[in-house]
Design a protein that fits this description.
Gyrase A, domain 2; 4 domains; 4-stranded antiparallel β-sheet; 4-stranded parallel β-sheet; 21 helices
Length: 579
């Protein structure tokens, strides 16, 4: 089933093409900004009128006449407004028919893509030399939400956790482990403490630093003893990472790993291919690629460094190998890189070099899904009071602890085991939703009080809205399997119609996020849906209503609860039947 917006876009677009004789037109169908403007608006007439040298209102009047003559069953009436806007009022009966189909098969609430694609989603990508910290939160949960949404639409999603597991830092760690006491070796389980001790030694002891660099050479040359030590760090790090992923309820697993080391055998070939393409230039002993479109503030060309003077490779080299793998081995249609905004120039350069050298071609869309920084209340990157980077697992544990206090205060009569279960879901959801509800390209302030509030656009508010509907349905003895929107004997109340339409708009919201990868669009929709339900609940009593009205309103509750549950699931948020 096509979404309402897609149905209207296709229908009005076809009429515009017939009216104007143009092959490509954009009717620019959007949801109406105010109820008095209808349910949707077609705002594409003005741009077309300018293109044709026509009066926009006259062109709009002609379009309205054609639309009325076509008699689309989804539309009750059209209005011409302003300089050519078409206000669209939908047929309540047509909406009922859609709702009945969805109640019979709730999986249809989110439509599948007409042409499923193979889409790589590169996200999380922690550095395996140390534990995950708060800087990894945004990339992990934004990427996971996008992956869930694309998968739900029927795309073949290939998750890629491009973890950092190679380079100088591992030479430092291996050397420290070999030269330290047995107690230090046993302390590897405390990866963060082990890393800090090794880094301190590296910074303060030049001879140690030299030996660490020698260890890198031995590691990269495949020395079995050094490889074994390296694997011990990787295994320990991955154990830490998986524990965090499980706690966060994200869908990454060990099977999704495609670490930097995976591409190591291809890096010499990357250099050769760039050389054969005539793109490599030597600069201060390093091999670089210079492209005309990348220049610094002083007008000098900006290099993409491929190989350092000591023969070592850089992130760009590995990323080019990854582009080649995703394009020509995985045969991806899209490759999404969920990486923070500070890497924007890096990815612009890598994508440009990849296209110039044939690592990618027109069959793949390379997209940097950038995001801003999580800031503390002081407006600076979030840290502990002592100035240290906050471990992600510590942040999540604190969220669960705070949620438990809140749940215990609000519902002290609930058994402790259930309160802890609720707190686990609410705490994790609050951290995730506080992030996902913000525009991903912006920095945002991390604030415990607002994210755990039961008021406003928060996870607790949405989870409570769902639980409230679930409780209502249970008390009424209403089953989701028997829910139907019965034909009305009279017109629906405005609050009923508003809830009906809002629930049906989940699919087009998901479609938009799948295209532009802004999960906050879905968050905003869910918040508006919950608010629409609350207004319906206050204005449209169920208890005491006649049988048909009662059944209809309960069915609307089922539809709203399904939309909330499925939408929250796409954000990686667990719903609860009771809070």
């Amino acid at each position: 089933m096509h979404t309402i917006k897609r149905t209207l876009t296709d229908f009005i677009g076809a009429e515009l093409m017939a009216l104007t004789g143009l092959d490509e037109v954009n009717p620019n169908v959007i949801t109406a900004s105010k109820p008095e403007f209808g349910d949707y608006q077609a705002n594409g007439v003005m741009a077309l009128a300018k293109r044709l040298g026509r009066n926009p209102r006259e062109l709009g009047a002609e379009l309205r006449a054609r639309l009325e003559a076509a008699d689309n069953p989804l539309v009750e009436r059209y209005e011409l407004a302003g300089p050519g806007f078409i206000n669209i009022h939908l047929s309540v009966e047509a909406l009922r028919m859609r709702a009945n189909a969805l109640l019979e098969n709730p999986s249809l609430l989110i439509s599948t893509a007409e042409s499923p694609q193979t889409i790589v989603v590169d996200y999380s990508s922690p550095n395996l030399a140390k534990e995950m910290h708060v800087g990894h939160l945004r990339g992990t949960i934004i990427g996971d939400s996008i992956a869930r949404i694309l998968e739900r639409q029927g795309h073949r999603v290939i998750r890629q956790n491009h973890v950092g597991d190679w380079g100088t830092q591992f030479g430092m760690l291996i050397t420290f482990m070999r030269e330290s006491s047995a107690e230090a070796g046993l302390a590897l389980a405390d990866l963060e403490g082990f890393y800090r001790a090794a880094k301190k030694r590296f910074d303060e002891d030049s001879e140690f630093a030299a030996r660490a660099r020698e260890s890198v050479v031995k590691l990269q040359s495949g020395d079995p003893e050094y490889l074994e030590a390296w694997r011990s760090f990787i295994d320990t790090s991955l154990t830490h990472c998986q524990a965090v992923y499980d706690k966060l309820n994200v869908t990454l697993s060990m099977n999704d790993l495609k670490a930097e080391s995976f591409y190591n055998p291809q890096l010499a070939g990357v250099v050769t291919r760039l050389e054969n393409a005539g793109l490599l230039q030597e600069s201060d002993g390093a091999w670089c690629v210079f492209l005309d479109e990348f220049v610094g503030k002083d007008g000098d060309p900006l290099p993409v460094i491929i190989q350092k003077t000591d023969g070592g490779f850089l992130y760009a080299t590995t990323d080019l190998a990854a582009v080649d793998y995703r394009c020509h081995v995985l045969n991806a249609d899209r490759s999404l890189y969920v990486v923070d905004a500070r890497q924007s120039l890096h990815f612009q350069q890598v994508f440009a070099v990849a296209a110039a050298a044939g690592f990618s071609d027109s069959s793949i869309s390379l997209e940097h899904i950038s995001y801003g920084t999580m800031m503390g209340s002081d407006g600076k990157p979030f840290k502990t009071r002592s100035g240290d980077v906050v471990k992600l697992v510590d942040l999540l544990n604190e969220a669960v602890s705070r949620a438990y206090e809140l749940v215990s205060m609000k519902n002290p009569d609930i058994e402790e085991a259930e309160r802890r279960k609720i707190a686990q879901a609410v705490g994790i959801a609050s951290v995730k939703y506080a992030d996902l509800s913000k525009n991903r390209t912006s920095d945002y302030l991390f604030d415990w009080s607002s994210m755990l509030s039961f008021e406003g656009n928060t996870a607790p508010y949405l989870m409570y809205a769902y639980a409230r509907i679930a409780t209502l349905l249970a008390k009424q003895g209403h089953s989701t399997q028997t829910a139907r929107l019965l034909p009305a004997v009279s017109s629906m109340a405005p609050e009923e119609t508003a809830l009906l339409l809002k629930a049906l708009q989940l699919a087009e919201t998901v479609e938009a996020v799948a295209q532009d990868c802004f999960p906050n669009t879905l968050s905003t929709y869910l918040y508006e849906l919950a608010g629409t339900f609350m207004r319906f609940y206050e204005a449209c009593p169920i208890q005491g209503a006649d049988e048909i009205t009662r059944a209809q309103r309960l069915s609307l509750c089922v539809l709203a609860s399904e939309a909330l549950k499925q939408g929250l699931n796409l954000l990686g948020i667990e719903t609860l039947e009771r809070m």
